[in-house]
Amino acid sequence: MKQSELFTKTLREAPKDERSISVQLLIRAGFVDKLAAGVYTFLPLGFRVLEKIQNIISQEIENIGGKRILMPVLVPKTNWQQTGRWKSFKELFKIKGKSDQEYGLGPTHEEVIAPLIQKYVSSYKDLPCYVYQIQTKFRDEIRVKSGILRTREFDMKDLYSFHRDENDLDRYYEKARKAYFNIFKRMGLKNKTYLTLASGGSFSKFSHEFQTITLAGEDIIHICQNCGLAINQEIKKDYPECPECHKKGFKKEKAIEIGNIFKLKTKYTKPFDFEFIDKDGSKKLVIMGCYGIGLTRLMGTIAEVHNDKNGIIWPKKVAPFNTHLIQIGNNNKVKQQAEKLYKDLRKQEVEVLYDDREDKSPGEKFADADLIGIPIRIVISERTFKRDCVELKKRNEKKIKLVKIKYLSQFLSSELKTQNAKP
RNA sequence: CGGGGCGUAGUGUAACGGUAGCACGAGUCCUUUGGGAGGAUUUAGUUCGAGUUCAAAUCUCGGCGCCCCGACCA
Fold first, then answer.
1. Does residue A46 approach strand B to less than 7 Å at its CB?
2. What are A94-105's pLDDT values in tens digits?
3. How far is the CA of A28 from the C1' of B8 (A)?
4. Residue span of the structural domain in which A331 resides
5. Smallest Cα–C1' distance to nucleotide B73: which residue has it?
6. Length A351 CA → B16 C1' (Å)
7. What does pTM read for this prediction?
């Protein structure tokens, strides 16, 4: 993409009513725009990051058998009444149509998926079954917080699994846990993300949350210094020692929940009488699990964790572009060379944001590049032109190196080859 | 939902109850081009409503909106 065609602009200062560092940077760099409290537009750069996040998540979920669908946002009142959540789900946005028909705007989709899968599952032979979607969710939060970290409208991946017994659920739950860590690893969050025991509600002993350490977080977790398992403060009173390794040393940290996995068992199959016929001919309730990841929150968390005083430092796999090509000066030869490089790189499927703006000083271009935070910066100027080189700098490093243009694609392909590790 | 703070131009920030100003941005022209360039010139604003007053950005009341703390968060 040519930067001269990018309609967004960077801001020198953050709007004064945003205090969270991630959203300050995301707004200044032109990734998102705030429409109202907890309601954001994702601009071209931000949308590209969301797409990267989405691709990584769907690859990993497909790897554990998930089949992608898209459920409606409008969910009729009767579905909610069947599980009692029309009354008990306090954040449910409720709307009324012209004919007095009432709907809840989906904040999560157990009430749709359970009766949906029920239509197709009648025998143990139809199980297990794994279905997911990536969709905009609505929750009427009493108070939104920290930019895109807690909003009223957000994108979520929700996966649901259906099983004939709890053992099978347990096996899949483990697979999901591993898939989640793959996802967070690919997004550069692995080192700061902890599997965390949390309340399981009345129907399961625990659920597991994936908590990323950051001061912007709203949860407090206690990390076992021996085995690394964390316990959410909300249930810590029940566990003076680690339930995993039985040691006692814990470290307290603020963290944000970027995902969770939950053994629902029969909580949502029972209200719909969702049964199957087992091998022995008996009817049994289907056992269910659910697994959520907030994509927009994830994007905010990444920006919150990866930044410096000059801007965001996107991990490679979620950056809006692989490379940021910057043309310094408007010398014709330099310009032609930059244009050619832009085309060549795109032919090689290297994603490139090309700063071709003629009315911006070098200093401003560098400052914008740091703010936007693309991993590899490529500079072309008269200086490099004379030597038939380009200048390379990584966003997370200080050193700058000159590379002959003919070797650039070689260099980039080795730099980017880990990009698509998974099919 | 309880408590606190705040609403001035696209962004940031001034103005005793008395002329709404500055910086950045944006437009035009000239010069400039390796870490947010310089000059000239133009552009654009008091959240809304009511009240007090000769006079309100400023005081009072109400609405709307935003931020923060707490409670809440299948």
1. no
2. 999 888 899 999
3. 21
4. 321-420
5. A141
6. 58
7. 0.95
